[in-house]
Target: NADH-quinone oxidoreductase subunit C
Amino acid sequence: MSEEQEKKDKPEEAPAVDPEREAKLKAAAEARAARQAAKEKAEAEAAEAAPPEPKPPSPKQPQLDRLVALVRQAAGDDAIMESYLNELNGDMPTLVIHNKHWRSIASMLKEHEELRFNYLRNVSGVDYETHMEVVYHMISLESKQEAAIKVRTERDAASVYSATPVWATANWNEREIYDLLGIDFPGHPDLRRIMMPDDWVGHPLRKDYEPLDSEV
Model:
């Protein structure tokens, strides 16, 4: 048999085992198994743990409840669409009311002897694409009680009765909302643009606004 044939027939020797490498692989596998076991144990303990204690009621809940009761008493049970405490704004009592009731509710909020919301702090408009809202933040200078009133309107022919006859400070805020969002305010004494030129096309804060010059 030739030397070349002997080399072909000779079985290949198994590669030498590297003890150090084998030890590292074993240690890595054990570490992965330990991490997985710890994770499963933590998940099991979390599942068995008692649920967290419920959040204590807000001290402003009675204010919200009373406000809801007074508004419904004055304007009817259907006047309020939604009521809640706004946690992101210090548990601000907040009402979402039907647009058709806003005119009478605005006067009531300022004149009612128990509420006396005689200072309108801010007015803002929001485009939610499906609808629009005008948000009125008010405070009673006597009791320091605060509230936010949201009035919804359709995006097409958006219209909310002006609060300016009740709170004069709404004047410029409503003009700005009219200018930038296109919400009409019937009853406003001087409703015209306040920031954009009178011949400006469109309302820049609407979600579907398309500027004439895309570079601007």
The beta strands are 80-86, 92-97, 119-127, 132-139, 146-153. The mean pLDDT is 89. Residues 61-159 form a domain with the Beta Polymerase; domain 2 fold (CATH 3.30.460.80).
